[in-house]
Amino acid sequence: MNVAGVYKRREPEKSTLYKIVFNYYESYEEIYPERYEKEYGYFRTEVKESIKKYLDCGILEHGMARIYCKEYGNDYFVAFSCKTRVFSHPAARSGH
């Protein structure tokens, strides 16, 4: 089998950005009204939805498909993607 063709999950939860958002988003949302609302306006629902999609995107626990290869007898899981580009790394948007 061609090793280059083997699927490898991208593991978004290991990225620095993911870890920062996962660990600090709730605190940020709590302090936003007092610290930032006067200057930047209310915390929009679209932002909250985008953050939730970002944190769920590519995580096996939030949805996946099991893929089976009859030719080689292997199977693996592919995490569902949120299909959004609202909140992602520039390299992910360009396909690199």
Radius of gyration: 18 Å
List the domain count as a whole number. Answer: 1
Output the helix-strand order: HHHEEH
User: What's the helix count?
Assistant: 4
The major β-sheet equals:
2 strands, antiparallel
Q: What is the number of strand segments?
A: 2
Unreliable parts: 91-96
Approximately how much helix is present in the residues? 40-55%
Global morphology = elongated
| Computed structural class | alpha+beta
Ends apart, CA distance between termini: 23 Å
Summarize, please.
With 96 residues, the protein is an alpha+beta fold.
Task: List strands and helices in order, with pairings.
Layout: H1 16-35, H2 37-40, H3 45-56, E1 64-69, E2 74-79, H4 90-94
Describe the structure.
This protein has 96 residues and is of the alpha+beta class. The protein is elongated. The protein has one domain (11-94). A two-stranded antiparallel sheet has the order 1-2. The longest helix has 20 residues, at 16-35. A hairpin with a 4-residue loop joins strand 1 (64-69) and strand 2 (74-79). The protein contains four helices and two strands. Residues 91-96 have low confidence and may be disordered.
